[in-house]
Amino acid sequence: MSAPAFVRSFSEIGNDDVALVGGKNASLGEMYQQLARAGVRVPDGFATTAEGYRHVLTSAGAWPRLASIFEGLHQDDVADLDLRAAEARDVVYSAGLPDDLASQVIDGYHRLQAEYGDDVGLAVRSSATAEDLPDASFAGQHDSFLNIRGEADLLDHVRRCLASVFTARGVHYRHRHGFDQLKVSLSVGVMKMVRSDLASAGVAFTLDTESGFRDVVFINGSYGLGENIVKGSVDPDEFYVHKPTFEAGHRAVLRRRLGGKALTMVLGAAAADDPTHNVSTPESERDRYCLDDAEVLDLSATALTIERHYGRPMDIEWAKDGVDGAMYIVQARPETVAARADARTLTRFIVQSHGEVLSRGRSVGDRVAHGRARVITDPKQLKDFQPGEVLVSEMTTPDWEPVMKMAAAVVTDHGGRTCHAAIIAREQGVPAVVGTGDGTTRIPDGAMVTVSCAEGETGNVYIGEAMYRSEDVAIGTLARPRTRMMLNLGDPSLAFKTSFLPNDGVGLARMEFVINDAVKVHPMAAVHPEQVIDADERAAVEHLVRGHADGESYVVQQLSEGIATIAAAFHPKPVVVRMSDFKSNEYAALLGGSSFEPVENNPMIGFRGASRYAHPSYAEGFALECRAMRRVRDDMGLTNVILMIPFVRRLAEADQVLAEMAKHGLERGTNGLEIYAMCEIPNNVVLVDEFAQRFDGFSIGSNDLTQLTLGVDRDSELVAFDYDERDPGVKRMIAMAVEGCHRNGIHSGLCGQAPSDYPDMAEFLVEIGIDSMSLNPDSIVRTTMAVLDVEKRLGRVPA
Questions:
Q1: Where are the beta strands (DSSP E) in 292-385?
Q2: Do 280 and 168 fall into the same domain?
Q3: 697 vs 701: CA distance, rounded Å
């Protein structure tokens, strides 16, 4: 009778073998077998089986001792839990490896040496039989080891891996999720070590981890071994790729963010107790991305292949080998948090007022919470943590999870959106602000603070208890009115979350908001930094554009990716992008802007909108705006973008701007391009028939149209009582504009504030038959319901 097979090669295992080799190893075997022909690279290896784990404990007679250790376990007694877990680990490690199991492990090692060379380094990784299941992610609960060489070292680390089934964090997590400690077995995966210490590593998700938006691949990475990202020791680079346009053949990174990447984890001596350590990343490498665009796109293609095979959103670990230059997949498991979000109800948090900002970082989740800050600088302080406090620390580790589940919120100095703190915070549904850099020094211990992740990708920590509210928005059953209900949006970091609101697209995407938030510099200052008068501002401009060929390429990339993120979030619905509409004083406030802008007494009706675009002093800046929009539509494939020209005073000005756009590759009608004009000047209404021959639609800007119809400065508090969009004269102008659009067969919409603020204004717009209205996100559901009521009264059937 042949000996039992306690070791299986990756070529012998697959997804159906979770009970045999755990989720991690089953998935590695599945990909190694099924996806290699599709270009997915998985290092070869083998796995010990759950039967092998039980064989170890049975041979040593260890089961009764383990059962007695866990009798009466109480998860909230952290000190007792630690003692029991340590005792259990000692029992497993001391059991040793039976000769038959050890012999099979060595045979597997020899096979890898024959394939990769005698000096092949090994990764020895744990894989529990309940780990990485869709409803119970045990990721990071057990130990793994890198750069293992030699038979004795391998056997010792297999024993260490098996013993790590009873880490304190694993015991606590398992107990909390209702798993019997003795019924969870552990498999050890042994695979070729990918030399990412000489290159980079990270994680790829086939959805956006914060919003659950499924049309993107989200990748982060840093130099060296991937453990720094998991721990949260570094601020990684981030990349997004839009799935629909990628699969349609458009090869472009949708959006990227340069991380600090201050540390690089490298290998030490193979025989050392801790064979890895961190070194400081050179400044030149911090200032460039750890992956180039081609690598990001190749990795996205691999991630999509894996997602298609598994039929669900995936969480994928990748590593680039610095020796052979190839990209390897070293783990893939179902994404377990964002994918489970309830799409029928959306909870929105709105911060109404707040105190001073103490610290800022990357927001995790979209919630707001307050509590007393507990600054932890030594793990020994965790015993004093009280439920409902805000955990503030440099970083977190899996050992901290019993405390994290009691926290109202989490703030860390280090880490990105896939670090340990972020993963656990998402799972617990608490807000986290990671990578602040200064949270532990800026936030006073014991102070009442509010942690807000509801204001975009930047998370804020405010002093005191901020005023905020939450609202549950039922979105699953809301009918669509005949009138298109669109959104006003200018912050790309809010786009994915906002897209879940019931909508018909974006009626106003404000380019100037993207310039302010993403470009951060006056376009002309980026092109001509030498003309920036202030030396400090000039240095700041040069620092911003570092890593790019020149200032022009910097502006085009930042602007196009900001707009593209909004367009991708709502694709294929229309997204109307208004070209920049800063006033001269607002342009002057941008970095380097004062060197290029005039000083005007009344910039509200001065050098703004269309008058700037062909003017010699801004022609180069407008050319960059056009290049960016051409990249969004032509290179990135987001042809749902409609362009809109603001503040077009005269017909001749319209002709001049349209000719300038065509010169830069944005000709109306080419590649389906539609160009709208803002209708915000009385002359636009008076000459609506003539303007309609030049544009595909009008979007009525009720704010400026009210100002210019009534002759009221809308920024002046002294005459605020005279400013009213519901004035009969203003409403007559709006009605005339809509009638003119209908008469000429072009689109009519309104993107001003009025329907967001006044239900009777929304009712008026429906009655005159406007095609669309664009609203602020916080009023879209309420106004949609009101519009449905009006349309019902008018006998219009919902769409």
A1: 314-320, 327-334, 345-353, 357-364, 368-376
A2: no
A3: 13
- Asked if 395 contacts 208 with a C-beta cutoff of 8 angstroms, the reply is no
- Most distant pair of Cα atoms in the chain: their distance: 99
Cis amide bond preceding 572, omega within 30: yes
Instruction: Identify the active-site residue in 172, 242, 420, 571.
Output: 420
Distance CA 764, CA 735 (A): 9
Q: Are residues 254 and 210 in the same domain?
A: yes
Residue 585 lies in a domain: yes
Helix (H) or strand (E) holding 491: none
752-779 per-position pLDDT tens digit: 778 877 888 999 999 999 999 999 887 8
Whether residues 397 and 452 share a domain: the answer is: yes
List the domain range (segments joined by +) for residue 180.
7-193
Rounded Cα distance, 422 and 412, in Å? 9
Residues with Cβ within 8 Å of 54's Cβ and at least 6 positions away in sequence, in order, are: 185
Q: What is the CATH number of the domain that holds 588?
A: 3.20.20.60
Domain count, the chain: 5
Give the pTM.
0.86
Helices (H), 249-331: 283-286, 293-310
Active site (annotated) includes residue 420: yes
Per-residue model confidence (pLDDT) at position 341: 61
Question: Of 165, 193, 221, which residue sits at a domain end?
Answer: 193
State which residues of the chain have pLDDT below 70. Answer: 1-3, 75, 130-141, 269-274, 338-344, 398-399, 474-475, 715, 717, 720
pLDDT (tens digit, 9 = 90+) per residue, 252-286? 999 999 999 999 999 876 445 567 889 999 999 99
Helices then strands, each counted (H, E), the chain: 30, 30
Last residue of one domain, picked from the residues 292, 308, 333 = 333
